[in-house]
């Protein structure tokens, strides 16, 4: 992936979302080429020269100080995920990150597998490209439609965009699709030279119009906490809360665990799925 192009497009899409009125600037005359702020308006808000900001938006971000990046983030009203993405893009622009490599996937400590296996709720470990690297028995039962594809590792993004079953499995498929792309976009910002991620993005962009459109939006997310909804083929609707956390000992990997509201129909459905799984074991 072209890091310079990524920086340009990210900053352009962010300023396109903000109107002058939102930041206390007069609307101004003339025809705007984008629906949001002009470059010179962002420069004023960030306290830098227009020429300097234009250069930054062209992708010349290597060596820019954290203070300046913070000023631009405030000017563009970036949220936490977007601000982190901007800093990741700056870090990835350094010369030593210029080589595009295919690397061995990070390993997963056996102790982490034991932890997720001991959990009574669905839990799994994924990498930045949404490969499922480890999952416990209940998690695998919950995500059974994904594992019907014999390809390994199972990939949540490929399932979402390339398998028609995903639109049944996810009642709110459009939201899942947006979130999936935002997770991949954030991962690409951390390392735009990850060849395996680049290959996945290329495959999805080629085969899915929805993915291609969402990818062009440059939205990112931290995806640390929230809710998910499933229509499981055996037990019906299940609503869960998810909590995700990075694994410091396994860089690049994230552990996610699901929980249900006590006494809810979703808890009953998940308990039923657990019982069915235990009978089959």
From TrEMBL:
This is Transcriptional regulator. GO terms for molecular function: DNA binding. SMART domains: HTH_XRE. Residues 6-83 form the HTH cro/C1-type domain. It comes from the Bacteria.
